Amino acid sequence: MPSPQPDRPDHYFTADPGAASSPATVELILSEGRLVTLATDAGVFSGDRVDPGTRALLADGPPVTEGGVLVDVGCGYGPITVALALRGGPDATVWAVDVNERARDLCRANADANGVGGQVRVVAPDEVPEDLVVDQVWSNPPIRVGKAALHDLLRRWLDALRSPGGQAALVVHKHLGADSLERWLGAEGWPTERLASRAGYRVLAVAAATSTRPSTASSNSPTNDPEPSA
Description:
The protein is built from five helices and nine strands, in the order ββαβαβαββαβαββ. Helix content is about 25%, strand content about 20%.
């Protein structure tokens, strides 16, 4: 049985992948019947197919805020980014954020190829405006960066949600700590609801915090779930 997030010869969350380029294309059919064709390459996450977690998130996630400010955290080559721009309508703005330069280049090209390039801002994490406020955060997050880094990443973006009314949509496999992450989110002050479970993937809706959150010390508390291997 394949791993939910298979290892690659070169980590997809490095800034400058060393894997030799090997261009390819994949197809994604959205639930509304729209066919999206995407360019991929070696050295990016799930370059040989649209990851099943991403498919689950796009199938079972909440409605996209029309005309909103949206963020795809860990955008890769852009399947979520392109879907958000198409579903959010021409007035939506999608920030596509990734550390991987090759992935950013592909995401930018795929947005252009699918007619939504004018709505998409593809950036590295340090290029995001510090005062950016967003209506929705979408992510198939990079679990393999480790728990501490993942929690820091989620804090940064969940704290950017518009309050009240902002929402995040996340997908994580149960074998990679989805249930412990769901508990952590709630304990940190972000109301969290499981929207769906599909082939082991948990699709979570996370509401913006409406009051002061607990101390971040809680994120260092041990859990009984195994730490995913890098």
